[in-house]
């Protein structure tokens, strides 16, 4: 399976299933507790967003979660982590099965995160950007007491503006560098990536979070790229002007979030590395997975408290992950927990 575009610039296929699960059910899928299943992969930064937001909002009882393994082939993500290689709720071996149940001739990407309608076994949506927004805005009835406002109405315009630049130059920018097929396309993506990271460093030098004084959707979206930077993007995708650990403001900001309940406790570094280095064989033909980097620094003091801010605003931190959803200690930066 090839990822690099030999003609030059990598262009992400953004044809997602735009159906939404809403409080009023206007697309035919009303918010209901227990009806839907979030299918995610801890390896994937786009899915990691949904895992974090679900945790922060306390939606575990309302929206169950299936976790795919870290690798996949050209057909789709698989449930090889589960007994018998089948998702225990959906009863399927591959996420592809849920897409084909709704669209027998589906010809677009089988991507995570995806939300599946459990009674029918049909995928509802894989529109990753809208999924997390809807978890904040449409699923309010099922938020835990003390859930934070991740997409507050008064800040939405600012959050959307920050998210647009972060997606274009950082979230997707690392892929544009890594999957570029020409020197020119690679260097263009590389320059845009680090120009944006420099801009974000300046923005965050005097403020704890990207928008306002609490964690928002914007922080979730930037974090999932930063946490993968040294483990994957710096080497595998040739984003090597600096490591994250060599960018003081962003490194401290990322550690601050990592040490915040709901962020670092969702990160599986083994899955992350296995996915990129084993799946992208046109970049890494032998599938050799690096032994490093050293993860101990993620738990070192970050000093960002001095900037003030209240991580959860008037809310409270989420409780620890449920036993079935904990990242194995050997896969984490917290081996002693």
TrEMBL record:
<dbReference type="InterPro" id="IPR036282">
    <property type="entry name" value="Glutathione-S-Trfase_C_sf"/>
</dbReference>
<dbReference type="InterPro" id="IPR047047">
    <property type="entry name" value="GST_Omega-like_C"/>
</dbReference>
<feature type="region of interest" description="Disordered">
    <location>
        <begin position="300"/>
        <end position="337"/>
    </location>
</feature>
<dbReference type="InterPro" id="IPR010987">
    <property type="entry name" value="Glutathione-S-Trfase_C-like"/>
</dbReference>
<dbReference type="InterPro" id="IPR004045">
    <property type="entry name" value="Glutathione_S-Trfase_N"/>
</dbReference>
<feature type="domain" description="GST C-terminal">
    <location>
        <begin position="152"/>
        <end position="279"/>
    </location>
</feature>
<protein>
    <submittedName>
        <fullName>Putative glutathione S-transferase</fullName>
    </submittedName>
</protein>
<dbReference type="Pfam" id="PF13410">
    <property type="entry name" value="GST_C_2"/>
</dbReference>
<feature type="site" description="Lowers pKa of active site Cys">
    <location>
        <position position="233"/>
    </location>
</feature>
<keyword id="KW-0808">Transferase</keyword>
<feature type="active site" description="Proton donor/acceptor">
    <location>
        <position position="175"/>
    </location>
</feature>
<dbReference type="InterPro" id="IPR036249">
    <property type="entry name" value="Thioredoxin-like_sf"/>
</dbReference>
<dbReference type="InterPro" id="IPR016639">
    <property type="entry name" value="GST_Omega/GSH"/>
</dbReference>
<feature type="active site" description="Nucleophile">
    <location>
        <position position="44"/>
    </location>
</feature>
<dbReference type="GO" id="GO:0005737">
    <property type="term" value="C:cytoplasm"/>
</dbReference>
<feature type="site" description="Lowers pKa of active site Cys">
    <location>
        <position position="276"/>
    </location>
</feature>
<dbReference type="GO" id="GO:0004364">
    <property type="term" value="F:glutathione transferase activity"/>
</dbReference>
<feature type="binding site">
    <location>
        <position position="77"/>
    </location>
    <ligand>
        <name>glutathione</name>
    </ligand>
</feature>
<dbReference type="Pfam" id="PF13409">
    <property type="entry name" value="GST_N_2"/>
</dbReference>
<dbReference type="InterPro" id="IPR040079">
    <property type="entry name" value="Glutathione_S-Trfase"/>
</dbReference>
């Amino acid at each position: 399976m090839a990822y690099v575009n030999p003609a030059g610039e990598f262009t992400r296929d953004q044809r997602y299933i735009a159906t939404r699960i809403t409080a009023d059910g206007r697309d035919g899928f009303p918010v209901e507790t227990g009806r839907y299943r979030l299918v995610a992969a801890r390896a994937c930064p786009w899915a990691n967003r949904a895992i974090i937001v679900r945790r922060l909002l306390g939606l575990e009882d309302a929206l169950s979660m299936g976790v795919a393994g870290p690798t996949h082939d050209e057909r789709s993500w698989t449930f090889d982590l589960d007994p018998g290689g089948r998702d225990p709720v959906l009863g399927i071996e591959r996420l592809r099965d849920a897409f084909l149940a709704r669209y027998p001739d589906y010809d677009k990407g089988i991507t995570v995160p995806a939300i599946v309608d459990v009674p029918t076994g049909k995928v509802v949506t894989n529109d990753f950007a809208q999924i997390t927004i809807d978890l904040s805005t449409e699923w309010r009835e099922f938020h835990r007491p003390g859930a934070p406002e991740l997409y507050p109405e008064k800040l939405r315009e600012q959050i959307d503006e920050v998210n647009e630049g972060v997606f274009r130059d950082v979230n997707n920018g690392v892929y544009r560098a890594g999957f570029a097929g020409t020197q020119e396309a690679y260097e263009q993506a590389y320059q845009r990536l680090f120009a944006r990271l420099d801009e974000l460093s300046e923005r965050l030098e005097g403020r704890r979070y990207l928008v306002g004084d609490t964690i928002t959707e914007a922080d979730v979206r930037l974090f999932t790229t930063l946490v993968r930077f040294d483990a994957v993007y710096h080497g595998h995708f040739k984003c090597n002007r600096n490591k994250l650990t060599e960018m003081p403001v962003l490194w401290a900001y990322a550690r601050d979030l990592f040490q915040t309940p709901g962020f670092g406790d969702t990160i599986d570094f083994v899955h992350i590395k296995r996915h990129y280095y084993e799946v992208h064989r046109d970049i890494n033909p032998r599938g050799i997975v690096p032994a490093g980097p050293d993860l101990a620094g993620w738990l070192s003091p970050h000093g960002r408290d001095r900037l003030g801010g209240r991580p959860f605003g008037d809310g409270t931190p989420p409780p620890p992950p449920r036993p079935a959803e904990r990242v194995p200690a050997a896969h984490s930066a917290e081996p002693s927990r």
